[in-house]
Design a protein that fits this description.
about 120 residues; mainly beta; Immunoglobulin-like; 4-stranded mixed sheet; 4-stranded antiparallel sheet; 8 strands
C-alpha cells in the first residue's frame, strides 16, 4: 500500500510538474529528511510511492512543497515576500498496512489537502 502524493496547480488547472517536494519523518521537534524529489508531468513522484508498504512505519511525517519556487518557474511574478513560500503538511500514519495518499491542491494564495485514496 504505502505513502503517495499528488499535486494539482489550481491556478493553471494542471498537475504541478517540476515542483520540488521533501518528505521527513518527525518526532517531537526533530524532522529527519527521508527523501527529496521533483514531481513528474502528472504531478506525482516519478518513482511511484514515497514510501512502499514494507518500509512505511507508524509515526508522524511532514511533506514540504516548494510552492513559490514552482510558480516562479511557471513565469508568475509574485510579490516579495511570497504569500505561500512553502506548504508544510504534518500528518500521522496510524495503520501502516493501509494506503496513505496526501494530495495537495495549490495556487500562489491558497491550498487544500485531505487523506485521499
Amino acid at each position: 500500500m504505502g505513502l503517495s502524493t499528488h499535486v494539482l496547480d489550481t491556478m493553471h488547472g494542471t498537475p504541478a510538474a517540476g515542483m520540488q517536494v521533501a518528505l521527513y519523518s518527525t518526532e517531537g521537534g526533530t524532522a529527519t529528511l527521508i527523501k527529496q524529489l521533483v514531481l513528474n508531468q502528472d504531478g506525482r513522484n516519478p518513482d511511484g510511492l514515497l514510501i512502499d508498504n514494507h518500509n512505511l512505519k507508524r509515526g508522524t511525517y511532514r511533506l514540504v512543497f516548494e510552492v513559490a519556487g514552482y510558480f516562479k518557474t511557471r513565469g508568475l511574478a509574485l510579490p516579495e515576500p511570497n504569500f505561500l513560500g512553502q506548504v508544510s503538511l504534518d500528518f500521522g500514519i496510524a495503520e501502516p498496512a493501509q494506503h496513505y495518499h496526501v494530495p495537495l491542491l495549490v495556487s500562489p494564495w491558497s491550498y487544500s489537502t485531505y487523506r485521499g485514496s
